[in-house]
Amino acid sequence: MFKSRLTKSVIAFSSYMAAILTAPLQASAQLSIGRYGIQPGLESNYLQYQLSGQDLSRMQVIPGCGVGFGAACNKSGAVLQQLVEANNGPSYNNLLIRAAGGDQNYQNFASFYGNNPNLEQIPYTSFWQNDSPYIMDGYRYSLGQTVSRTPQAGLGQVTQNFYWSPEGSPNSVDPRSGLLNLKYSYGRLLLEEVAKIPNWKQQIQSQDLPPEVKQYYVSNISQGLRALNSGSEQQLEGKILNVLSAPYTPEGTPFNRPNAGIPQEFDQIVGQGLSGDVFAGALPILPEGDLISQEIAPIPEGDVVTRGGGSQFPYWTLAGIPLLLLPFLFGGGDDSSDTTSSPPVSQTPPGSETPPVSETPPGSETPPVSETPPGSETPPVSETPPGGQTPPGGEIPPGIQPPPTQRIPESSTLTPLLLLTMIMSIISYRKWLKQKCLN
């Protein structure tokens, strides 16, 4: 009983402490990869980038996310959308549906793209550098696929119902141009909504942002509004791209997307997918050789893991708490919860009495103990009644020893728990060691 309670207490305490100490890390989790990390909401884009087989060392990323979320991080359009909503204007979804010509027309449009649920992210995704595969917030990684540039029948009839569709003609629109039309249509509607706010500059200046960031947004939006009033569709298209696709960055990099800063060694790490009926139960195989070793060359802080991105405390040690109490779990001593004590052979079961052999009941004679009464046989004292069961009524006949009680083997959960603990400790330790080496 004591071991059973101790085991349950150790497991519960370990799980409780691990949950408490790791909860803050999970709440503020961000993929700390390269110099800038992966901004919140772009984790699926990063996964798609890896699956595409492109070199991680050439990946261009959004360097921060002071405003917006996902593909809209640090972009002027995100500031404008917040400004519109703060002044009782339409929400993002409402503007998007209006830009697409209504809900039904949007559904018709989505059917040309397999009803992809990520289609609503298109206004803030990138099409620059001829759909560069190295821009991580590009449309191909948001949708999880590339689209054709061959005109598709019927698509033009749908996009001509957009609020604005400068790309292509009603009879000749390819899927890529259809996505651009949705982007341009939303961008124009957004600028028109901002133009209704007389003091939009003051509202941006009052936000809790660094001065250079606010200046960037004000300049970008001013150019977009001037293009809107110019009447030049070509100029308006270019400014909409700046408003919706160019994130703020303090560095002078092409298209405001610096290199992620991931070493070329990681280009050789290739993921391999598994079919749905395959279970991977083995430990993960980490890169061997120079990548993970005690002789690894020191890397300047921030080149691979962002500053403050890793934890200084090795949380993997929490998983080893149950191992410290193994001597108590497997020590000597009987466990009253595992076996049932058998009454001594010399005791008589309750409810029956066996008269002493030496006594004779009044008015009768008792044959010697070694003799057998006529017409019956008495089994030896050491034998068990037929079938190994107690006769009906719960009483054992006089002179018959009760059957010995045997331990019934029960399945134990302790062994798999300990194996799982050791496996998780090894995995956590290797991850922590890798993080420490990269730092």
Model description:
- The structure is a single chain.
- Helices cover 39% and strands 0% of the residues.
- It is mainly alpha-helical and 439 residues long.
Largest sheet: none
Helical stretch tally: 15
Q: Which segments are poorly predicted (pLDDT under 50) over 5 or more consecutive residues?
A: 1-28, 272-313, 332-394
* Rg calc: 38 Å
Q: Output the helix-strand order.
A: HHHHHHHHHHHHHHH
Terminal CA distance reads: 47 Å
Helix content: 25-40%
Instruction: Characterize the quaternary organization of these chains.
Output: single chain
Give the tally of β-strands: 0
Proportion of beta-strand residues: under 5%
State mean pLDDT (0 to 100 scale). Answer: 74
Structural class determined from secondary elements? mainly alpha
Shape: globular
Can you tag this structure with a few keywords?
disordered N terminus
Summarize the structure.
With 439 residues, the chain is mainly alpha-helical. The protein has helices spanning 2-27, 43-52, 76-86, 92-99, 103-111, 128-131, 139-143, 155-159, 175-195, 200-205, 211-230, 233-245, 321-324, 326-329, 414-438.
Reconstruct the topology from this structure:
Elements: H1 2-27, H2 43-52, H3 76-86, H4 92-99, H5 103-111, H6 128-131, H7 139-143, H8 155-159, H9 175-195, H10 200-205, H11 211-230, H12 233-245, H13 321-324, H14 326-329, H15 414-438
Helix pairs in contact: 3-9, 3-11, 4-9, 9-11, 9-12, 11-12
